[in-house]
Amino acid sequence: MLKVGLIGVGSMGTQHFLRIMNVISGATVVAVSDINEAHAKEVIAPYEGVRYIADPIELIRDPEVDAVVIVSIDSTHEAYCIEAIKQQKYIFCEKPLSSSAAGAKAVVDAEMAGGKRLIQMGFNRRFDTRYEELKALVASGDLGEPMVAHCAHRNATYAPQYDDVTAVTGTAVHEIDIMSWLVGDYFTKAQVIFPKSSRHVQNPNLHDPQIVLLTTSSGMVVSCEIWVNCQFAYDVRCEVLCEDGTATLPRPARVDVCTKQLNYTGMTTDGGGYFADSYNREFQAWADACNSGTVNEAAASAWDGYCAAVTTDACLKAQKSGAIEPVALTERPAFYK
Amino acid sequence: MLKVGLIGVGSMGTQHFLRIMNVISGATVVAVSDINEAHAKEVIAPYEGVRYIADPIELIRDPEVDAVVIVSIDSTHEAYCIEAIKQQKYIFCEKPLSSSAAGAKAVVDAEMAGGKRLIQMGFNRRFDTRYEELKALVASGDLGEPMVAHCAHRNATYAPQYDDVTAVTGTAVHEIDIMSWLVGDYFTKAQVIFPKSSRHVQNPNLHDPQIVLLTTSSGMVVSCEIWVNCQFAYDVRCEVLCEDGTATLPRPARVDVCTKQLNYTGMTTDGGGYFADSYNREFQAWADACNSGTVNEAAASAWDGYCAAVTTDACLKAQKSGAIEPVALTERPAFYK
Amino acid sequence: MLKVGLIGVGSMGTQHFLRIMNVISGATVVAVSDINEAHAKEVIAPYEGVRYIADPIELIRDPEVDAVVIVSIDSTHEAYCIEAIKQQKYIFCEKPLSSSAAGAKAVVDAEMAGGKRLIQMGFNRRFDTRYEELKALVASGDLGEPMVAHCAHRNATYAPQYDDVTAVTGTAVHEIDIMSWLVGDYFTKAQVIFPKSSRHVQNPNLHDPQIVLLTTSSGMVVSCEIWVNCQFAYDVRCEVLCEDGTATLPRPARVDVCTKQLNYTGMTTDGGGYFADSYNREFQAWADACNSGTVNEAAASAWDGYCAAVTTDACLKAQKSGAIEPVALTERPAFYK
Amino acid sequence: MLKVGLIGVGSMGTQHFLRIMNVISGATVVAVSDINEAHAKEVIAPYEGVRYIADPIELIRDPEVDAVVIVSIDSTHEAYCIEAIKQQKYIFCEKPLSSSAAGAKAVVDAEMAGGKRLIQMGFNRRFDTRYEELKALVASGDLGEPMVAHCAHRNATYAPQYDDVTAVTGTAVHEIDIMSWLVGDYFTKAQVIFPKSSRHVQNPNLHDPQIVLLTTSSGMVVSCEIWVNCQFAYDVRCEVLCEDGTATLPRPARVDVCTKQLNYTGMTTDGGGYFADSYNREFQAWADACNSGTVNEAAASAWDGYCAAVTTDACLKAQKSGAIEPVALTERPAFYK
Questions:
Q1: B261 Cβ under 8 Å from any chain C Cβ
Q2: Cβ–Cβ of A260/B231 closer than 8 Å?
Q3: CB atoms within 10 A of CB A263
Q4: Which residues pair with D4 in a beta bridge?
Q5: Of A113, C187, C269, D135, which shows the fewest CB atoms inside 10 Å?
Q6: What predicted TM-score, i.e. pTM, was given to this entire model?
Q7: Chain B interface mutation, best of A259, A263, A270, highest count of B Cβ atoms under 10 Å
Q8: Which residue of D has its CA nearest to C267?
Q9: What's the complex ipTM?
């Protein structure tokens, strides 16, 4: 039974806490840290044997804690990762690895210096069965080489503070990681196109929808539509063009209804629900790997977190320049292969 | 240019008149007959060279008339067919061939006695491209022998006078003809099941939906759901189970929409629109065949009209008895092969 | 942590053992019984703290065992259930409850006499999210009353010993339970129709496909196609006709591929895979309920197991008689509401 | 009966000849011109009353000829249009209007100088019922303003001479016209992106696939994937993103098949077949308009042909520069509204 220390019980942190307590086999939370002590104590109250530890660093160092889940605010991830690496404890770190590419590099360097891979990034889509099927098909080579992908990430509505930066670091980053994983390549160029914006856009610093165009080292082009106030539902699209055919992510299987001159299936606005199964599977995979003294190879590593950070930096630059910007990445180090 | 005499310009007759004048190549209407003279003259007024002939028999005999289209009320079809056979003119006869199986047999006998096939029945679905693809696939044998078919015929709403008899003679008759054509077999047994009826049923002499179960001479079972007040749309379903797979009629290709948490395609309540293309194609095929001095082999013959009549008779008996009733049919005569 | 004793580690029993050990949260297996001692010991070897107990009755009575999972051969279910009821331990019993309707009634009576509901039957489809959505929609009344359902249960191939009896007790029984659950009604009449059989049928005592027609107490008709050598895949279909529309179970969401002039999605021949998620969810629900000292209300009860047995008995009679046979069921007792 | 003179009976010209003779109502071909006299005479041989006229200009001037269909090689369109305008005869001109934007402008100017609209361009997709439904939905405003469209034009294979120029002038031009028509706007900017090319590309002067990015005067962005050796089928995709939802062109309705662990629909490699119905409808619309002494307003005008030429010019420039190129277009003149 893996004994987990969890940092941050905001919305997603609480979901992860409940997941580990109620759904995951072979893991349990023994300690929780959060700046909001009252709230944290409320969350853990129904469960016996879970301690509140105010200081996250103390939690990481606590001898009862086998492994750490980091769901605190973005700016803290880097420091907590580095401390957990010092303790040589396994880490589940929600994206991003750091709030800067340089910080991400520091974590990568610390992990490599420690000599043992410890970090699993929270890029949950890698554990979505639909993406798994898509990757398996593309990797099989049955359709030839991938050349183009048309992707879309759509949210029904966005929080007021959501702006062009968040569009990249909070949304496009998922497309960046998943497509890099799907085709086993990294990005070398980025461009961002701003079409006419929706009347539903309220933040003057947001263009919505926008199109992020990425090129991989082999010349594949990935077009990612980012549209965060599409109104109609949470929706993720991915069509991969290979030399001998196309492969497209399906929408979720929902009951097919005919009524009132419509033939429809329902859609959800809940992104968590859309990918609920993948969250459970990524945590089960993490717990299983920790219990086996290893990391899950399908999951995103610290290196993947670093790649995502470098790529989003280029996208942010491209938003401002309107030009095609280089992405300064290199081949994956042997340590992460 | 085939010169057509058309009997009956009610709703469907007017559609056929306009079709021949405006859509079909190689045919034109030269004479129209209808009991409502004023209405008929209104219909033909915009077109030059179309005469009104009060007496349908006179119209059939008119020397300018090359071929006859019969869209008058059901009870008149038999007599007009027999007159046109006497004149050895080509006939397009809307279903039914006669209002009784005996009457249908009389037309078949007259046509055989005349020594030349002249009649094309208005079973339009045989010219629907989706049914054509389905038949071609089943006939190819690629999926093995057909064993079962699940069919459904759904109308959004029905006319007040629609009752259990019409459910068979006006609706199930289409399933009977098309399925017989599709698998190249005829029916030997019929059963009708009455589930709980919809609250939308107003006619006390109607059970709706109902399920007509038919068995072919080879033992294939065809289940036909007849549901004429389904409210939601006009809808026709057909799934054929063959030994190595299934083949299913698609719904029409309609624009796929995502909005308001629904992913939908529109449906129509208009059966004429659903099959519009097949009406055009059956008339073009008829005109082409007449102009070539032959009948179209894919179209329903007088024999097919007779088979449909015998089968609907058995269904009507089965509605009353609740039992499995025999269908008294024999192999197709060589004349109709 | 619920301590489970599991009887029977054949194919499905082993799956359930591994499920409880590796996937389910809050439960663990502490004892296993099986007539094949060597095999059972092999299955449990990798796991610490799991004892082998040769005698199932002894296992049921073992003080460490909180709850019992019965996956042994059908004929033993009744006796093990009755013993576990005596011990007032929670039971997960794979279908059937007994090999006879009378035996099922005996278990129901024993449970009622014990005064506490203890049994959850292994009708996994009730925990399939697609069926859940379908039931929720039908139950909402948004589409009006259900009147007809077209169901199909298809297996790619069947074991040589599979015959007309198994078609009912092993296959149709799933449709019987799920449809009864879905519309909240029980069956009063059964008929079985034998179409022409597939050339792939090898057992002379099997008709395949066959159509089971069931009528509920309210007059709804459920048509269940049972086709166990359809060759192409494992496939389950369900379309419910309500007064204002239809609702249809979707196929699983699979990657959509275009290649070689086909637009396809893959299908699986693995029924376990088709419903894998529902197996996990039914066991999690069972463990959660046991840990809360209750039974899961969505799951099938002993009464549901009894209803299934009475209905399959009528189907078996209908296969032989060719007639419409009564199903001798009554309203659900208050104990099971 | 419209008497048509047709210039050019190559592959498409012959199809159009047969279409007018056999499918279209109210029109017939009376004269044909082609540089290959023997072939032309073979094509017309089965039909009475069709003359061969060697000189196209003579054919245009022939007093029996009411209207002209131009399907000769691209470089001749401009001169034949101008001659037919001189004769004030109606014209059906296959794309392009001219082999240069300047030439297209000359035709526009000639038509305006003549004072009467005479030209219908052969952009057949405007008569495809699926595009019509899509346009009607977008134009209705029910989904809000269109902001982005993702389009794709895919051919299974290409002719050896097909190169980057043809990719624009022969293929992208269809997307340019249809999208301009669909949203009622014209393009102001063009960019072309070259991803990694397929191994199936043989012509060194072809990049395939390629992505053409177009911006309209209102800021809408249209992304057009051009992929002419996709191997799998002829395929056309169009998804329009509006402020409140998306609308997507369906694939053709084809029989849905389950066999060998696949659930598939067939696809065709035949672009003519994919859009067959639209060719018939555009010619019927043309014949009807000519017979009424007018032009069809839904069809592409000479102005539309000119817009397409200017836009393709910008695309060709963008292919070479790799930059975003301006499209030098202005508002539609009143003459063409």
A1: no
A2: yes
A3: 22
A4: D29, D67
A5: A113
A6: 0.96
A7: A263
A8: D261
A9: 0.95
